[in-house]
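Team,

Forwarding the record for the chain on the shared tracking sheet. I've put the sequence and predicted structure together so nobody has to dig through attachments.
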Amino acid sequence: MRVHIRTTHRRDHRRIVGALSVALLCTAGVTALPAAARTPEVPGPSDTARTTGTTDAPRPPEAPRLPDGLAKTPPMGFNNWNSTHCRAEFDEEMVKGIADLFISKGLKDAGYQYVNLDDCWALPERDGNGKLVPDPQRFPNGIKSVADYVHSKGLKFGIYTSAGTKTCNENGFPGGLGHEKSDAQQFADWGVDYLKYDNCNNQGVDAKQRYRTMGDALKATGRPIVYSICEWGENKPWEWASDVGHLWRTTGDISDTWSSMLSLLKQNLPLAPYAGPGRWNDPDMLEVGNGGMTDTEYRSHFSLWSMMSAPLLIGSDLRKATPATFEILANKDIIALDQDGLGKQATVAASESGRWTIVKELANGDRAVALFNETDQPQRITTTAKDVGLPQADGYRLRDLWQHRDYQTTGTISATVPAHGTTVYRATADPRWATYPPAVETGTDRAPLIEAGTAGGLRTTVGNLGGTPARNVAVALKAPQDWRIEATSPTTARTLLSGKKLITDWKITAPAGTAPGAYALTLTADYRSPSGTRITTTLPGSAHVVVPPPSGTAYAAELPWLTATNGWGPVEKHTSVGESAAGDGKPITIGGMGFAKGLGVHAPSEVSFYTGGRCTAFNARAGIDDESGGKGSAGFEVWADGKRIAESGTVTGTDTAETVTAAISGATTVRLVVTDGGDGMDYDHADWGDARFSC
């Protein structure tokens, strides 16, 4: 969906696209749906109850599907929108360059097929015969010429329009509503293999009617065209579109942020029963490589989309992509999960406090297991072969799909997963299990918080999950140059039998004067299998150098934070969140009352602080900023050392500032959390007015 800007985020409230009766407003990755239309969300990190088994919607009866045999596995390819929007760099040269890179970088060999255009390829007006006209500045040789070039590389070509009178861009390019037969035939004549059909400017016409009409028009051309229904999940297309199109959007647009990706994941996960060959749930395109997330987060994004059998449409400009981006996008072990012939979307086996176990049944009986850490601290996540659905066996082969290595386990499937990371295994009941090296899990109890010049502590664990011994085990901890690392307990074990652990305590000292912030801290374990094979495993992590808060009153906006995440734009100091750019907020105002100091955030948001046991209380006046125009809702929470100690309840855009007070004596860390109030994140510009600590 393209309601949230082509040029600016939808939440700037300057554009409402389509008929007033539709009034659909889309945020960065979340659509404001009617309550009856929203998909149920699975638990998030603030949920303390443990969920076991799947959290899917009830399994529907076997859905009909199109008889054309297209999209037997989720489509893989490229779409320019996330990287270029409507800027001038989107042109014929770019599209051809992407096709060339599919070949030269091995992406075609990895399974990517489609090179797709998004909005802004046409002129704003049709010609005298009602035909679409390609923009001669962007595509001087026309669309068919570009399609022919893509086809010459053994690839397929896709295009975009909207099921409305105009597309989503504010320039108002022609939409397909009322022109379905003509446009479909024009696409077929150009050699189009894939159509993305958006939902803007739909004039309130019934969605089923609009999308079925175009689907029928595509069939009538006689050309096989994959049909992507980009309806944003507004009318639950998973319930009616399996014989209309090949895939359907279940969410609003993604944006290149952790919170957006996470929100879309939680909306799409419960819809597993509706997915299958030729009928796929689509939580929107990939953001991998666009720069708004870390490589660890992008690996999670790619892993989770593949586990969900989602379409894998690259959204970054591959001409500028880093080697790390290509490494993620071309991971054939992960891609094999997405493209597995059984076509089953993964389900949630367990979820507790941001620790997820997500399981996907594969065609050969294997199970793919994603251990996903939603939190901002390392987490040990564990399950068993039995719990993921494998048969009883003496041992199992466990392939790490990011390390590309095979191990063996007696049944435990476990990893200490970095913050925002995902470990993905392919587990097999393999009679040759003992021929593989034992799986050895490395872990830490936490990310240490260290005051410069003062020693901090850390405990690491190396555990043998396999059925054969790990020999000559050695563990090492690497910190930045000039830091002091001292082991205060053994770092080696001659033999580590099945189920046994090597536990090591460390003292870590950052030099006096080290600037606050996160610093790399890498744990490495080295061991030998019974056959003599040497194995080295590495667990990347971090240590935070922190500064104790000053005595007296310390305003939150004037303290360094440990972590900060925001649903839209950056966290702002002493202003509202504004829009996507840093520093574009306004003075904080809640219910007509102004605050000179405070934090401007946007739900969902978390900002954490180091208090080091030196503070006694936190106080703030919290609410929805007046720039939301009386709209929006949010909940404000204070967490101390992982426990929620204060909450506001739901506050709306029409409420005055709510007083939030929390006793935090003895707490090492304090986290300020803003939830979306349970109705999506539209307009949720939230403020912590006059937020301060008493220390």
